[in-house]
Every structure is written in structure tokens, then in C-alpha cells.
Amino acid sequence: MSKNDRFGRRTVAVTGIGVVTALGVGKRENWQALTAGKSGIHAITRFPVDLLSTRISGMVDFLPSSTRGASALTDELAETAGREALAEAGLDTALGGPLFLAAPPVELDWHERFALYRHGPEQEEGYRRLLAVARDGRRPDAYDQTQFGMIAERLAELFGARGLPVTLSTACASGATAIQLGVEAIRRGECDRALAIGADGSATAEALIRFSLLSALSTQNEPPEKASRPFSKDRDGFVISEGSAALVLESLESAQARGAEILGVIRGCGEKADDFHRTRSKPDGSPAIAAVRAALADAGMAADEVGYINAHGTSTPENDKMEHLSLSTVFGERMREIPISSNKSMIGHTLSAAGAIEAAFSLLTMREGVIPPTINYDTPDPAIELDVVPNIKRHADVASTLSNSFGFGGQNACLVMGREPV
């Protein structure tokens, strides 16, 4: 078995996977629920929603940090997934390579904002109080919450990472981008292994209101588990959610030398910017088409070698239409035959974490020989002719997958993964 890929680059294997979503903690619990078609979407209880149009989410209320703010919860999500992935890889706290963390933009949580106003002169502006907190060191908890790279710094020390940890935010493509950075670092020979994590605990009241103002969220609140309907004619928006996933990426040579189990390989990564609009995708789908083609080219694969597609599939009217257009352009008539499902029908849209979570599920699809369904597919859209694996899982021998991540702000990233090295 060659240690290099078709282009002579180091083959990048996956030796550890960790997952947390609204379905539960860990790969096993998530996979059982996902393949059973179970939904993790539920009514919001974390904050009042009486006057809001959207009152549902995929929040991870079962974690201790869920009441402590977005930064603390994102931290716990990232650590939980990272620990599981490293344990499976047999590395624990000895990663010995770089850490790439996809995380949401940091905002000071409301209880910290109120605390600032309680402990300062009334005539002093809020931003001056925040500066004072940062300078005098008397509120380290508030200071930490405002530092974008603080989570990665802590995790890098905890996991035994090397070098300066990288924190990135490329909207809904963030998780896939973190994986791409790890793959490229290994290919360049800068490290033997890397840890890529996507984590997002930012389903706050502010986020809910902002996405509602963009008309991006589903308002089908009853029953919550039926709200996310990717590719269905009656889809009306995505469901905001939280979660995390971590992948231990390793050169095939390094993994085999230490006897690690190979869970799959990352064959190709593609990205393409879309400058059409801050939130909307270009109507002709050309940036998404280019991202898919770039990933296939980077993998050295033809379109007919892809056996399954893990869709971005947000359940918004525009995104699902654009994704169908882009995939039909790349795969042609064969697009009607390739199984394509959306995990977001069950876990909602985990934003910064989505690309990493869906990459993890894509690897499990190949490993377990089971394709998770797209649930809530009761009203097909005649304008979107796809095999969405409707409502019930499917047993299938899948050797390669494509996972799509198309983010707000025109940030598109695609990953091509394989079950085994070639």
C-alpha cells in the first residue's frame, strides 16, 4: 500500500473521530440515533421565546456549560469531541501536531455584560468598562470570553499540540476549512498529525433574532422534530443548532508505523469564494460548482467515482435549490442515482461545526455501510430530482463520499473522503 496519493503527496488518514450533537454525546450514541431517523430538534427552554417567530432549536442543553454562555459552551463542546477523537486514535494528551479549531465569532455573554454595568460608575460607557476589565485583570472570566483564540490556546495545551493553534471562522464552511488546513499541513510535511475540530455553542437569543431577521430560520414550531425538511417542497428555513466534531488527521505512514486503525482517508479538498451577496448564493451556482470540481480534482477523481453525497442541505428554499443545480451540473444525469442525504434534517444546522460533523458522519457512512436518511421528506419538490434517501436509512457499500459546506458570506468548501487508501 502506497504511503502517497495519486499526486505523490502524503496520504492523509483519519485515526480518531469525536462527535457531539443534539442527538447526544459520542459517535456511538449519535450514529444510532442518526441512522434510526431520530430528530434532536426541540422547543427552546434556555431563554424566553414567547414573542419570537422561531421557538425551536437543536441546542445541547444536556452539557453543564449550556447555561454559561456561547464561549463556555463552545469550549466544552470542542474539548468533549477532541477527547473522544484522541482517545480513539490512542493519543490522549499527546497529539504532537497542530490544532485547527473552527469556532463562532466571540461575543460577551449577557450575564457578563450586565455584570460590567453593575460594577462601574453609571456615567461610564460600557466599552470603557470593558477596557478596564481587560486592563486590570480583576475579571479574568470576562476577559477570556472576549478572546477569539482563547479556546484553542487552552485545548492546545491540554491535548499536547505543537505550534501556535489556529482558530478560524468561515461561517458554515468553518468545520470543513479546519479539516482542509490540517490536510494541507500534513501534505506539506510540516507535521505527521493534526487535530481538526469544529465546535459551535452559539445558539443564543441574539443569533436566533439575527437569523430570523434574515428570514433564514424555519417557523414551523409544531412539532419541532418536523421543522427541518431539506429538499422538500414545503421547506421554509433551517433550524439553528449546536454541536462539535473532531478528527485526528495523520499521515498514512505515521498511522501505520504506530499501528493505528485507519478509519478513512481525506482524498481531496476544494474551496471557492462567492462574492455575489453577504448571505445569498450566486443564482447560477457557479462558486459551489467550482468548489465541488476543485475537491474532485484535488482528489484526482472523476465525478462517477463518488458513491454518496453528504449534502449541505440546510432546508432553506434558496440553498437547497442552488445545491441541486450545482450537483446536477457536475454529475449530470447520474445525479438522480447518487444517494444524497442531509444530516441537518435531524441535527439542524450547527453553523461553525457543521462541516466537521458532516465529515465525521460521512466517514461513518463508509465504515458502517449505512447511509443515514433525510427525514421529514413527505412532500417532494418536483424541481429537485434527487435520491435523498427519504426517511429510512439504507444499507450500501460506499467507497467514497463528497461532503458539501456552503457558508454565508460566500465561503464554500467541499471534502472528498475515501474508505481506504488508494
Secondary-structure blueprint:
Layout: E1 12-21, E2 24-25, H1 27-35, E3 42-43, E4 56-57, H2 70-89, E5 99-102, H3 110-118, H4 126-136, H5 140-145, H6 150-159, E6 166-168, H7 174-187, E7 193-200, H8 205-213, E8 243-251, H9 252-257, E9 264-273, H10 286-299, E10 308-310, H11 317-331, E11 340-341, H12 344-347, H13 354-368, E12 370-371, E13 394-395, E14 400-407, E15 411-418
Parallel strand pairs: 5-6, 5-7, 10-11, 10-14
Antiparallel strand pairs: 1-2, 1-8, 1-9, 3-4, 7-8, 9-15, 12-13, 14-15
Helix pairs in contact: 2-6, 7-13, 10-11
GO cellular component, one term: cytosol
GO molecular function, one term: 3-oxoacyl-[acyl-carrier-protein] synthase activity
GO biological process, one term: fatty acid biosynthetic process
Task: Briefly say what this structure is.
By secondary structure, this protein is α/β, with parallel strands linked by helices.
Work out the helicity level: 25-40%
Strand percentage lies at 15-25%
Mean pLDDT: 92
Number of strands: 15
CATH architecture of the largest domain: 3-Layer(aba) Sandwich
Name the shape in a single word.
Answer: globular
Order of helices and strands: EEHEEHEHHHHEHEHEHEHEHEHHEEEE
CATH homologous superfamily name of the largest domain? Thiolase/Chalcone synthase
Task: Briefly note the CATH topology name of the largest domain.
Answer: Peroxisomal Thiolase, Chain A, domain 1
N-to-C span: 7 Å
CATH class identity of the largest domain: Alpha Beta
Number of helices: 13
Largest sheet: 11 strands, mixed
What is the count of distinct domains?
Answer: 2
Question: Which structural class matches the secondary elements?
Answer: alpha/beta
Low-confidence sequence ranges:
none
